[in-house]
Amino acid sequence: MSVYDTRDDNEIGFAGAECVTLSEFMASGLFQRTYSEGMRLVEETSAYLDGPGREAARLLPREASLAYAGESMRLTTRLMQVASWLLVRKAVHEGEMTTEEANSEKYALATKQIARQPRFEGVDGLPAELKGLIERSERLYARVERLDNQLRMTGTSVSKSHPLADQFARVEGFFREQLAVEFPRREFGRRKHRPE
Fold first, then answer.
1. CA-CA distance, 160 to 73, in Å (whole number)?
2. If pLDDT is split at 50, 70 and 90, which confidence band does 116 have?
3. Quick one: three-class SS letters along the chain?
4. Average pLDDT, the chain
5. Distance from first CA to last CA of the chain, Å, rounded?
6. 67 vs 195, residue with greater confidence
7. pTM of the model
8. Mean pLDDT, range 132-161, rounded to an integer
């Protein structure tokens, strides 16, 4: 089984394979690359939203401010799902949980509809750094979704609890708390469809 790598990170995957095993995935080096990229992006996003992004949001006009609230929530949701997926696969590889548990619906990428929604109206007025984080998260999410599909084709299972559930809940709570503090009473703007 070989990994192919094109110029577009979205297309990284396993050549000639509809499904792969977790062992093949881990041995390919693709997991470590994706894991490192995902965790780095989580850290960058958290630092931005808690620092420069907070300051920039205060200066935005109303429409862009509402887009900031909506897009930053989608961004953190997308990254929470990616981080959870990566941590679950790492836990399986290290023997902390079974493949059956990892493939259960409990740990599926459950926010696909959120991740694929058209961007909010006013997104063009967002800070360039935030737009860059959004685009990177969308590419990473798409890659993880493809990898998830390839891994899941090796089998499905019944949902069970696992040792990282509390950590996932804390991460989600942190992001929700940060957004509640920053945008306590704002409503999201109308959505604008992007051309495919």
1. 28
2. low
3. CCEECCCCHHHCEECCCCCCCHHHHHHCCHHHHHHHHHHHHHHHHHHHHHCHHHHHHHCCCHHHHHHHHHHHHHHHHHHHHHHHHHHHHHHHHCCCCCHHHHCCHHHCCCCHHHHHCCCECCHHHCCHHHHHHHHHHHHHHHHHHHHHHHHHCCCCCCCCCCCCHHHHHHHHHHHHHHHHHHCCCCCCCCECCCCC
4. 75
5. 32
6. 67
7. 0.69
8. 76
Q: Which fold has domain 3-182?
A: Helicase, Ruva Protein; domain 3 (1.10.8)
Q: Is 12 left (phi over 0), alpha (psi -120 to 50) or beta?
A: beta
CA 171 to chain centre: 13
Do the beta carbons of residue 25 and residue 147 sit within 8 Å? yes
Q: Which of 64-68, 133-137, 187-191 has the highest mean pLDDT?
A: 133-137
Q: Say which residue the tokens 């493809």 belong to.
A: 146
Measured between alpha carbons, how far is 176 from 155 in angstroms, rounded to an integer?
33
Give the residue extent of every domain in the chain: 3-182
The pLDDT of residue 106: 81
> Hey, what amino acid is at 49?
L
CB-CB neighbours of 159 under 10 Å: 13
Which has the closest alpha carbon to 55: 129, 121, 119? Answer: 129
Q: Which residue has the tokens 């992006």?
A: 41
Packed helices 128-152 and 62-93: angle between N→C axes, nearest 10 degrees: 30
